[in-house]
Amino acid sequence: MAHNHNHNHTHDHDHADIDWSRMAEHLETQAELFTPMYERALAWLGHKQTEPGLIVDAGSGPGVLSCLLAEAFPGARVVAVDGAEPLLERAQDRAARLGLADRFGTLAGELPGILDDLDYPADLIWASRSLHHLGDQRAGIAAFASRLVRGGTLALMEGGLPARFLPRDIGIGRPGLQARLDALEEEWFAEMRAGLADSVAEVEDWPALMASAGLRHTGTRSFLLDLPAPTTDRARAYIAASLGRLREVFGEQLASEDRETLDRLLDPEDAASVHRRGDVFVLAVHTVHTAVRTG
Predict the structure, then answer these.
(1) CB-CB contact of 243 with 192 (8 Å)
(2) Exposed / middle / buried, residue 282 (Cβ in 10 Å: 0-12, 13-18, 19+)
(3) DSSP letter at 286?
(4) How many other C-beta atoms can be found within 10 angstroms of the C-beta atom of residue 172?
(5) How far is CA 161 from each of CA 140, 225, 270, 286, 290, rounded to the nearest angstrom?
(6) Which of 127, 160, 128, 155 lies closest to 285, judged by CA?
(7) CA neighbours within 13 Å on the CB side: how many for 163?
(8) What does each C-alpha distance from 113 to 71, 134, 190, 242 come to in angstroms?
(9) List of residues 6+ apart from 125 with CB closer than 8 A
(10) How many helices (H) and strands (E) does the chain have?
């Protein structure tokens, strides 16, 4: 099971029917919660790309990571790129709030073509789970590679492990609920990929795909987020939001027993809910692949 994708599927829908403030809030909550993990990933990246002048966050969403990049690389200008202008407005506001506005910009448009609008090539392109929204991932990587300076780094965050919030046996319903939700999500993800314009089936060997774009693979590492029980209210709210979204998307596909279990987990009045039980946690792994442009 290679994916945990329920966090950022803004790009698969007709933009007209998205509740942007709700979407932004969910993306921001997740990224803020995952910040300790992202900071470790960026520290690792900092040893590879020491003093980038221009950093591009390709598929930035509301810009939590864009701002972390700006903080991790104080000499760099950061450009947040996304197809959703309402999310970029949030990114710009966040940068201003954090005192980063003087070296922070945004660029609205669809990846990868919009990268042609950059004023100059990038020293570092960071793509956090945005590449899998492109129908042709190989062509996407090649396009990213073409926007790097010689010696510039492409960092892809793809894969990892599905997040875990609950013990296998939670005392209600049938044990193993999250594994069954993972399986539904894998099917959903495969259908999402198959339904993209110009969708190409591709072996998701990221280092090999980077090599095919003329980049030299420089490392892969996975980073752990470990927020054990008893956890914080912020983590609880994220868990409830994540399970709530799964309930919305997969409600009809679930066995009735699993649907009832999810409903109980989401009911703030229920002592067995994630709002009240003492055993909820967040355990997640994200993987980063890096490669450098040599030619």
Answers:
(1) no
(2) buried
(3) E
(4) 16
(5) 23, 11, 29, 7, 18
(6) 160
(7) 21
(8) 27, 11, 24, 31
(9) 55, 56, 58, 115, 144, 147, 148, 152, 153, 154, 155
(10) 9, 8
Residue at 204: amino acid letter:
E
Are 289 and 155 in contact by the 8 Å Cβ rule? The answer is yes
Tokens in use for 283? Answer: 């355990």
Instruction: Report the C-alpha gap between 145 and 285 in whole angstroms.
Output: 26
| For helices 20-33 and 64-72, angle between their N-to-C axes, nearest 10 degrees | 40
CB atoms within 10 A of CB 105: 19
CA torsion sign, 201 to 205 to 211 to 215?
positive
Residue 128 in contact with residue 144, Cβ under 8 Å? no
Rounded CA gap, 30 and 199, in Å? 28
Q: Could you tell me which of 90, 101, 102 has the C-alpha nearest to residue 32?
A: 90
62 is written with which tokens? 């509301």
pLDDT (tens digit, 0 to 9) for every residue of the chain, 295 residues total? 334 444 444 344 445 567 888 888 889 999 999 999 999 999 999 987 778 899 999 999 999 999 999 999 999 999 999 999 999 999 999 999 999 999 999 999 999 999 999 999 999 999 999 999 999 999 999 999 999 999 999 999 999 999 999 999 999 999 999 999 999 999 999 999 999 989 999 999 999 999 999 999 999 999 999 999 999 999 999 999 999 999 999 988 999 999 999 999 999 999 999 999 999 999 999 999 999 999 8
